[in-house]
Amino acid sequence: MGYQKRLTGAAVLTATLTLTAAGLVSAPANAEAGATTEYTVVAADNVSTADAATAIAKAGGKVVAGNTDVGMYTVVAPQKGFVEKAANTAGLVGATHKASIGRAPKKEQPGNVEREAQQAAAAAKKGGNKPATAGMDPLDDKLWGLTTVKSDKARKVNAGDKRVTVGILDTGVDASNPDIAPNFNWALSKNFAPDMVDIDGPCEVASCLDPVGTDDGGHGTHVAGTIGAAANGLGVSGVAPNVSLVELKGGQDSGYFFLEPTVNALVHAANNGIDVVNMSFYVDPWLYNCVANPADSAADQAEQRTIIKAMFRALTYAHSKGVTLVSALGNNHEDKGKPRTDISSPDYPVDTAYDRPVDNSTCWDLPTEGPFVIGVSALGPSLNKSDYSDYGLERVGVSAPGGYFRDGLGTDTYRTVGNEILSTYPKKVLQEEGSVDEAGNVVPEFADSVFKQCNAVGQCGYYTYLQGTSMASPHATGVAALIVSAHGSKQGRNGFGLEPWKVEYLLYATASEHACPNPPLVSYVNVGRTPEFDALCEGGTHFNGFYGHGIVDAYAAVTAHAWWEHR
Length: 567
Prior knowledge:
Layout: E1 12-13, E2 18-19, E3 24-26, E4 29-30, E5 36-43, H1 49-59, E6 62-67, E7 72-78, H2 82-87, E8 92-97, E9 100-103, H3 119-125, H4 144-148, H5 151-154, E10 165-170, E11 190-191, H6 197-200, H7 219-228, E12 244-249, E13 256-258, H8 259-271, E14 276-279, E15 289-290, H9 298-320, E16 324-328, E17 363-364, E18 373-379, E19 396-401, E20 421-425, H10 427-433, E21 450-454, E22 460-466, H11 469-487, H12 500-510, E23 521-522, E24 535-536, H13 554-559
Helix pairs in contact: 7-11, 8-9, 11-12
């Protein structure tokens, strides 16, 4: 972990930009004197690379690197005053310090919020090639989420197609786990987030860029397992156990996400034909990025406008290139269309937050409120909305199992870890947390929440429970991957694929409709929450603020007959 700056001391970079195959531009370094720092600068719409560089120079900065597909540049400029100058320079949207724009929830602990007949027809549509099927794995009896979304039934018809690629934009993916390894796509996986010593600790490698196939945070590996852990007779299996998993490391080991790694990961997904991308994180340092919040300084307003433009542009670009975008709705137990006062921003640097009233019409929680993004709310085993989960008619698309520790009030399951979501997890992280010892054995007091299973050649996988909309989103992502597998076309991108609007249509059309509770105002006081958690479910059976279009249904998705398939 950790980060060694590409610019040390007073170094700044100058030179001619060079376009690479990935759409990135870079420049060799020449040292100059002056107190400088790095910024992310976003050019205005339809501004060329050359004109953007000229505008950046006019504002007092020099281009270090950039992503020309979305008009975003890394710039070295004076430590003071550059954000304001960039915001007032023609040709630029603005600039933001190279600081965190996203954070994956920490590992949730118990009690904490963060804590068959159709097969022949399906084969015929594939030109006579029988879809891959799969069985169940030893720990799948603990995966109530898997059966809730009917992956157990779906895999008897279609367990996913290896040509379908799913990007996990997260903290990394531990490819050494024998449940991840069979489906891990090494060719497309990439790390976009160098370690930073101030938040991640010392670098493990000289480049500070962790090797692909590692995850020092754990969150990304957990997400990946829910989406596509292999059905191989070991550990757990995912919702789509035969699709390919692509690591898009855009998050720091510590759980923070920075603007450039996140945008660059989305552009990589777009340019490399990745079918679905899961985004189980939310925007920092601002929970809501606002255009011009009166509570914020002029510089902070300018930075937020830059983040909004960059994220909107990257999400739109990915969608236009055929990427289906799925995101966790959020764990702030609020109606996304009626946000409360933001008391947590900015959360980076620490201890700098202040109260910010939020205008819903000019503020966005990104990426979940960005364009073309499918938002997913979280449910517990009872199918009740999880206490922590965000909701609301404005942003929810579908609902899925995310875990709810406090579910089952009045039963033996109340406040038990089994109400959460079990999935793959890195041994290294479990050892750091103290639940696995140096020899790789589960510490006895964690025997109910951490599991270890090894195959015949001694490769061992580790598994633990988490809860959050971060766990709901991958259930929906897995179903989206199955939709591409079952309904994709050989004429699609990279020889096989399905347009995002078709994926979204089928995800919504095949979801299991679920009406609002009766009464629709749900109180969580009886499970130990404050009245702030009370949630009003608005809407009808076909669509409402808790469940959206319904609970994702893998079996209905793979056996559906889309109208365009009969034209």
